[in-house]
UniProtKB/TrEMBL annotation:
It is an enzyme of class 2 (transferase). SUPFAM superfamilies: P-loop containing nucleoside triphosphate hydrolases. Keywords: ATP-binding, Cytoplasm, Kinase, Nucleotide-binding, Transferase. Its EC number is 2.7.4.8. The gene is gmk. This is Guanylate kinase. ATP binds at G19, P20, S21, G22, V23, G24, K25, G26. GO terms for cellular component: cytosol.
Length: 196
C-alpha cells in the first residue's frame, strides 16, 4: 500500500468490485456500461501482457515492470498488489479527480487491493461477484481460453482463497445471467447514491 494517500471522499462514492478470475467481472461491466453511465471506471495499470482483444488505455494500461515500479515509488497508486504472478495497481490521479468532482467511481480490483482500500476508504462500498458454482467458474475460465493450463490452475487455486473473502464485502452478487447481474449492480449503485 502507498503511504501518504489522502483522498477527500466528500464528493463521489467509491465502489470496489472483486471476484475470482473467470467469474465474469469484465463481461458484466461491459454489459452494464452499454446502458449505464452513473459510475466512472478506473483503468488499472498492469505488468500482465495484453490478451488478444485487449486495448492499452481501455482495458488496462499495460506497462513493463520498471515503469510500474517507478510509479509505485512516486506513490502514484492508491493500492497495488501482485496477483497471479503480475503487478496490478490503481492510478491515484484519475480516482482522486473524479471523486473530488463528485463522480462515483468503480475499481475492479482483487481482494488484496480491496483490503488496502478498506483501510484508507472505510466509506467505500464493496461488492463481490460470485460464480453459481465452482464448476461453473472452471468452465467459464476454460471457455475464455486466454490462459495456458498452468496459469488456469493457478487462477483456480487463487479463486478458492478469493471466494473465502466474500463475506467481508457489503454485497455478494451471484453472476448467473449476465443481464440480471448488470441490473443488480445498477440497483446497488442507485441504492447507495440515494442513501448519501
Ligand atoms: N489490487 C489490484 N487488483 C487488480 C487491479 N486491476 C485488476 N486487478 C485484479 O487482478 C486480477 C487479475 O485480473 P486479470 O488479469 O484481468 O484477470 P481476470 O480476473 O482473469 O480477468 C483480478 O482479480 C482483477 O480484479 C488493480 O488495479 N489492483
Ligand atoms: N453470467 C455468465 N454466464 C455464462 N458465462 C459467462 C457469464 N459471465 C461471463 N461469462 C463468460 O465467462 C468467461 C470469463 O468472463 P470474464 O468477464 O473474462 O471474467 P473475469 O473478468 O471475471 O475474469 C468469458 O468467456 C465470459 O464470456
Amino acid at each position: 500500500m502507498q503511504r501518504g494517500v489522502s483522498l477527500k471522499l466528500s464528493g463521489g462514492i467509491l465502489f470496489v468490485f472483486s471476484g475470482p478470475s473467470g467469474v465474469g467481472k469484465g463481461t458484466v461491466l461491459d454489459r452494464l456500461f452499454e446502458k449505464y453511465d452513473g459510475v466512472e471506471y478506473s483503468i488499472s495499470m498492469t505488468t500482465r501482457p495484453p490478451r488478444d482483444h485487449e486495448e492499452n488505455g481501455e482495458d488496462y494500461y499495460f506497462v513493463e515492470e520498471d515503469e510500474f515500479e517507478r510509479i509505485k515509488a512516486e506513490e502514484g497508486f492508491i493500492e497495488w498488489a501482485e496477483v497471479h504472478g503480475y503487478l496490478y495497481g490503481t492510478p491515484k490521479k484519475f480516482v482522486k479527480e473524479a471523486l473530488e468532482a463528485g463522480k462515483d467511481v468503480i475499481l475492479e480490483i482483487d481482494i488484496q487491493g480491496a483490503r488496502q482500500v478498506r483501510k484508507i476508504f472505510p466509506e467505500a462500498v464493496f461488492i463481490f461477484l460470485e460464480p453459481p458454482s465452482f464448476s461453473a467458474l472452471e468452465k467459464r475460465l476454460a471457455s475464455r481460453d486466454s490462459e495456458d493450463n498452468e496459469m488456469r490452475k493457478l487462477r483456480l487455486e487463487n479463486a478458492r482463497k478469493e471466494i473465502e473473502e466474500a463475506s467481508r464485502y457489503d454485497y455478494r452478487v451471484v453472476n448467473d445471467d449476465i443481464d440480471e447481474t448488470a441490473e443488480r449492480l445498477i440497483g446497488i449503485f442507485e441504492k447507495e447514491k440515494n442513501r448519501r
